Structure formats: structure tokens, C-alpha cells
Amino acid sequence: MEKVTFTDNSGERLEMYVLEKARLSGCDYLLVVDQPEGDAQALILKDVTAQVAADGKEASYQIVSDEKQLDALTPLFESLVEDISFVTED
User: Fold this and answer.
1) Which of its termini does the chain have fewer beta carbons within 10 Å around, N or C?
2) Taking a C-beta distance cutoff of 8 angstroms, is the pair 43, 32 a contact?
3) How many C-beta neighbours within 10 Å does residue 37 have?
4) Residue range 8-55, pLDDT digits in tens
5) C-alpha span between 8 and 14 (Å, rounded)
6) Could you tell me if 19 and 80 are in contact, meaning their C-beta atoms sit under 8 angstroms apart?
7) C-alpha distances in angstroms, 84 versus 9, 15, 51?
């Protein structure tokens, strides 16, 4: 499993593991988790590099939080990854 480091808007570095990649409606998405095994916190990230990085040297991702997008992406990732189920936190 590929380990990647993200830097948030405050400059904090976060290490995540890429569980799966997918493309939907012309956009690329990553399913990332905070630990490689067991129950993990998962995020779906949208690749927004073309929208924010003119030089294209660093990839930029945004957490998908829109309910409609999540409703479309969740079944896609569940079909791509064995033994996974999503539970939302309120």
C-alpha cells in the first residue's frame, strides 16, 4: 500500500495510505486511510491539481464532503476494495 504525505492548509503534515484510486465523471479520486491495517479512518480525496497548481509540480487534493458526491463515490470504492464498508461519523 502506497504511503503518501499531505500538508494541510495550516502546514501540518499528515501521513495516509492510498487504498484505491478511481475516476468518475472525468475527475480522479483517492481513497486514503490513516493506518494500513484494521479499522481505520478513511477519506475520499478529489484531485484538484489542475484547479490550483499552475506549475503542476505538486498534486493538490480536497476532501470530498458533499453528500451527493459521497453517495456516488462510496459504492464505487466499495466495489473496488474487498472487505470494506463505510460508516459515517456524525
Assistant:
1) C
2) yes
3) 8
4) 888 899 899 999 999 998 999 999 999 888 888 889 999 998 876 566
5) 8
6) no
7) 29, 21, 31
